[in-house]
Design a protein that fits this description.
Chain lengths: 254, 219
C-alpha cells in the first residue's frame, strides 16, 4: 500500500484557483520533489497534506488513514507528518534542545528524560549536538534549518514535508542543509520536497513533479524530466532556473 | 502637638491603610490579569459571539470613569438589594476595569507573535490550547511586560479612589488623622504621596529587572 495518496485536491483563495485537481501517490522511502513557478500552489499543496490549509475538495491518505476525514484526529495525524518551513519557524524563546524535545514531550507525552535523549540523538544526526543550549537567534540560517529538521525527526514521522527549505539561506549555507536531507533520503525516510535546487532533485528524487497553474503538468523520474521533458513549458522552466541557480541538469556543483 | 509626633502616632494607621491599598491594587491586577487573558484569547480565537462579548466588555469598562463604576457597583447594586462590602464592590468594579485595559495590552502582544512559529508547532500536532500555552503566551507576556507595568502602577494608585465608597485604605486613614489632629493636611498628604512613590518605584524596578532577566539572547 502507498504511504501517501493525494487525490484530486482543489483549493481556491477567493477567485484564485490555487490547486486545480492535484493527485499523486508515493511509496514508503520515496523522495518526491515538486518544482514549478512561484504562485503555482506548491506550498499550498504541502499544507493541504497535513491540513494546515484545508482543501476545498479532494482527499489525502497517510498510510491508509484518511487525513481529510472530518472525524479524523488531525493533531494525531499531524504528529506523524514532519514539516520543515522556508523560514525555519523555530520557537524563538526556547533553546535549541527545547525546540526539538517540545514535540515529543507535549504532543506524544514522552517523559522528559527520554525526550531529551531523543532530541540529543536527532541533533547529533544533523551535526548540532554542541548547540543544544543556544537560542535560535544565535544560530546561522543553515543551523536553524538543521534544528528544524531535527525537530521534525524527533516526532519519528512517517513522512517529512519540506517547503523550500533552502530558499531563505545564504548560498554558502545551502549545502549543509541539502546534505542532511540527502542523508535522510538515503536512510529510507519518505520526503516530499518543494525546491528549486535542481541538483538535489537530480541526485535524490525518485520522481519530480512539475506543478503549474495548480495542476501537475508533468511528472517523471529526474533523468527523464531533466534531460527529455515532454512539455515545452517544462523545458523552458528548467532552463530558466538552471540559469538562475547556476546548476546544470547533470548535478549540483560540489 | 508638633508634626513629628503627629507623624509618629499616625504612621501605624497609614501603614494599616497601605496594607488595604495594596490588597486592593494587587487584587485588581490579579483579577484583571486572569480575566484580561481570557478576554484577549476570546477576541483572537473566539467565534463571532465570543468576540462580540469580549469587545463589548472591553468597550464598556474602558469607557466609564472609575468613580462611576465604583458608585454603580456599590450604591447602585445595593439599591437592587445586591449588597456587598465596599471592599468587594471595589474589587469587582476595578478588577473588571483592569481586565479591560490588560486585555488590550495582551491582545496586541499576542497578535504580534510571528504566525510561522505557531504554524510550526501546529504541524507538530499541538492543539490550540497547547499552541497558546507553549508559544503565544510565553512570548507575548515578554513583549507586554513593559506596557503592562503601566497598568501595575495605575492600579495601585487607583486603589485610592475606593476612598469614595468608604473603603478604609490609606487615604481614609490619612483623613482620619487630619480630622483627629485638627489639621496637618499637607504633612499627611505628602506622606501618603511619598508612600505611593516608594511602592510604585520598587514595583516598577522589580518589573524592569524581571523583564531584563527574560530577554532571549540573540533577539
Amino acid at each position: 500500500m502507498e504511504l501517501l495518496k493525494v487525490e484530486d485536491i482543489r483549493k481556491a483563495f477567493g477567485s484564485l484557483q490555487v490547486l486545480d485537481g492535484v493527485s499523486f501517490e508515493m511509496e514508503k522511502g520515496e523522495t518526491k520533489v515538486i518544482i514549478g513557478p512561484s504562485g503555482t500552489g506548491k506550498s499550498t499543496l504541502l499544507r493541504c497534506i497535513n491540513l494546515l490549509t484545508k482543501p476545498d475538495s479532494g482527499k489525502v491518505w497517510l498510510d491508509g488513514v484518511e487525513v481529510t476525514d472530518p472525524k479524523a484526529n488531525i493533531n494525531h495525524l499531524r504528529s506523524a507528518i514532519g514539516m520543515v518551513f522556508q523560514n525555519f519557524n523555530l520557537v524563538t524563546h526556547l533553546k535549541v534542545l527545547d525546540n526539538v524535545r517540545i514535540g515529543p514531550m507535549r504532543v506524544k507525552r514522552i517523559d522528559k528524560k527520554r525526550a531529551t535523549d531523543f532530541a540529543l540523538e536527532k541533533l547529533t544526526r544533523v551535526g548540532l549536538a554542541d548547540k543544544v543550549n543556544s537560542y535560535p537567534a544565535e544560530l546561522s540560517g543553515g543551523q536553524q534549518q538543521r534544528v528544524s529538521i531535527a525537530r521534525a525527526l524527533a516526532m519519528e514521522p512517517k513522512l517529512i514535508l519540506f517547503d523550500e527549505p533552502t530558499s531563505a539561506l545564504d548560498p554558502e549555507l545551502i549545502g549543509e542543509v541539502l546534505t542532511v536531507m540527502e542523508d535522510l533520503a538515503q536512510s529510507g525516510m519518505s520526503l516530499v520536497v518543494v525546491t528549486h535546487e535542481i541538483g538535489f532533485a537530480h541526485s535524490v528524487a525518485d520522481e519530480i513533479i512539475f506543478l503549474e497553474g495548480g495542476k501537475i503538468l508533468e511528472q517523471s523520474a529526474p533523468e527523464k524530466m531533466l534531460k527529455e521533458p515532454e512539455q515545452e513549458r517544462t523545458r523552458s522552466f528548467l532552463q530558466k532556473i538552471a540559469g538562475l541557480y547556476g546548476h546544470s541538469a547533470e548535478g549540483r556543483e560540489e | 502637638m508638633n508634626q513629628l509626633t503627629v507623624l509618629a502616632n499616625g504612621m501605624p494607621l497609614l501603614l494599616r491603610g497601605l496594607a488595604v491599598t495594596l490588597e486592593l491594587g494587587v487584587g485588581f491586577i490579579a483579577l484583571g490579569l486572569v480575566l484580561g487573558l481570557l478576554l484577549a484569547s476570546g477576541q483572537i480565537y473566539g467565534n463571532r459571539l465570543v468576540r462580540c462579548f469580549c469587545s463589548g466588555f472591553v468597550q464598556i469598562f474602558r469607557g466609564i470613569p472609575a468613580m462611576v463604576l465604583l458608585f454603580i457597583f456599590y450604591f447602585g447594586l445595593a439599591q437592587l438589594n445586591i449588597n456587598m462590602s465596599a471592599f468587594v464592590a471595589s474589587m469587582i468594579a476595578m478588577g473588571f476595569r483592569s481586565a479591560a485595559y490588560q486585555c488590550e495590552v495582551f491582545r496586541g502582544a499576542m497578535q504580534s507573535i510571528r504566525s510561522g512559529q505557531v504554524l510550526a508547532v501546529q504541524a507538530l500536532g499541538m492543539n490550540l490550547l497547547q499552541r497558546i500555552r507553549y508559544v503565544v503566551l510565553p512570548q507575548s507576556l515578554r513583549y507586554c511586560l513593559a506596557p503592562w507595568s503601566n497598568e501595575f502602577a495605575a492600579e495601585i494608585k487607583d486603589a485610592s479612589l475606593c476612598y469614595a465608597i468608604g473603603v478604609t485604605e490609606i487615604m481614609r486613614q490619612g483623613r482620619y488623622i487630619i480630622t483627629a489632629t485638627f489639621g496637618n493636611a499637607m504633612l499627611i498628604y505628602v506622606t501618603v504621596a511619598l508612600i505611593f512613590l516608594g511602592v510604585t518605584f520598587i514595583g516598577l524596578w522589580l518589573l524592569r529587572r524581571w523583564e531584563l532577566s527574560l530577554q532571549v539572547p540573540g533577539l
